[in-house]
Design brief:
This protein has 189 residues and is an all-alpha fold. The protein is built from seven helices and no strands. The longest helix has 29 residues.
């Protein structure tokens, strides 16, 4: 059963990755670079300041640092625990996928830290801002999904890496929101 899931994952990677074209490569490279998200999240922090004030902004920044750290370190634990090669290092996939990014990153792929971190932060802010700026909060979810898909598009992650990363992100972002809400009620209400 596990072997069949891996086969389907590889088939889906080949299909999705090969949907790409050189016309879209610049866009997906733009989406995959972490620095691209910085202006988006600076605007989100501005919204937190606007709706909640400076003290809650400070707690929010600390929570974001924590949610990113948890997501990133969990991904590393899984990557070195499972040691699944990235598609770009898998010799069986040579010539079957497009490698858009010149460098591939680390050797292991399960699970995608980009997918996990982007969705963790997006879910966290969605839950905080849904009453104040719900359309922008939902934009963050779309942004995170695009970041996750970019990892498949450029050839550095399998779809299962991204989907599992999304699941971890949802859990991580939701738990961090609950912790944030607890601290807001206890210390800053």
């Amino acid at each position: 059963m596990l072997e069949r899931i891996k086969e389907l994952d590889i088939e889906l990677l080949i299909y999705l990755n090969n949907l790409g074209s050189e016309n879209w490569d610049v866009f997906w490279l733009f989406m995959t670079y972490t620095v691209t998200s910085v202006p988006v999240y600076l605007f989100v922090l501005y919204l937190v300041y606007k709706y909640f004030g400076f003290k809650k902004l400070v707690f929010t920044v600390l929570a974001v640092v924590l949610v990113i750290t948890i997501s990133d370190q969990l991904s590393n634990i899984f990557k070195y625990g499972f040691e699944r090669l990235r598609p770009c290092f898998n010799e069986d996939l040579n010539g079957l996928i497009r490698l858009v990014k010149p460098s591939c990153g680390g050797r292991f792929s399960f699970f995608s830290a980009h997918a996990s971190t982007s969705l963790s932060v997006a879910v966290f802010f969605l839950l905080i801002l849904r009453k104040h700026s719900k359309y922008f909060a939902y934009f963050l979810i779309i942004w995170a999904i695009l970041v996750g898909y970019s990892r498949i598009y450029i050839g550095v992650h399998f779809p299962a890496d991204v989907l599992f990363g999304f699941m971890v992100g949802i859990i991580n972002g939701t738990l961090m929101y609950q912790l944030w809400k607890y601290f807001m009620a206890k210390y800053l209400s």
